[in-house]
Amino acid sequence: MYNIKRTAKDSVFTALFSHKEYALQLFKALHPEEKNVTEKDIEIITIDNVLTDGIYNDLGLMFKDRLIILAEAQSTWNGNMAIRGLLYLSETYKRYLEKNRLSLFTSATVQLPVPEIYVIYTGEKGNRPDEILLSDHYPKNSTSPLQLRIKMIYDSKEGDIIYQYINFCKVFNQMRKDFPDSVVMAVKNTISICRNKELLAEFLKDHETELNDIMYDFLYNEEYWRKLMLRDERKKAREEGLAEGRAEGKAEGKAEGKAEGHAEGLSEGLAEGRMQGARDKALEMAKKMLAKGMAINDIVDLTGLTSDEVIQLPNQIS
Fold first, then answer.
1. Rounded-to-integer distance, Cα 301 and Cα 286, Å
2. What is the pLDDT, as a whole number, of residue 164?
């Protein structure tokens, strides 16, 4: 039975590059001048659950004296990526010192790996910068010497692993738009199209089940948050309906009792209409979740329906 994850702790990004084979391809895409590097030379040092907020997924790679930090920014832009990079770098250095038993309280100068920080942005570049600086967060005319540079990646050499990943994401985003009411169709079409276009084809072949789970989690998670927003909108609409009714009643200059009745009727009508629409949407959503084999408790949590209502739904599915 399918279980929804309340927070997306994984993504296609981290699943892909947690494999040494693809981490090596990633490194070579960033450093094509390194001809002799092998999988054995790459150490994956991703910090799990650090600064993860659902928008970004962070990855760390160590190669000789280089520390490469790579973050994925999906189609949502965030202006605090340089600060995120600083905090991630600080935590990574801390763990590096601990792992190598390096003390900061001796006379010997500690050597650190050289940091390189990149952000892969899968949305449209537009007029977004090629580089983000930590100094952008300081007050204007500041002379602070502490600086951190984040290189933005919007595209890459055709065929390399970064190019494939970015275009995989673009296909996935388009399928979500083309099939807004069918998670299954969005995922299936994404995989089919990307195979035909040879975008992550080998990874899709070897890890299709893993990928399906990740994308279903992402989309159902997205639906969950959309449901929470719908509840907020419904509450707001009810309040607006009450205010609208009162205003209209007063404008008509009717008696206080009649105005109150008018307001209440208008408010209830608006609220009931919106609530019925939200309920119909919840029922449709629950039917799709049942068809997918999701647990009844999960469906109740996501839709706001009662367990009895959900149990009765199979009788309504044609």
1. 10
2. 95
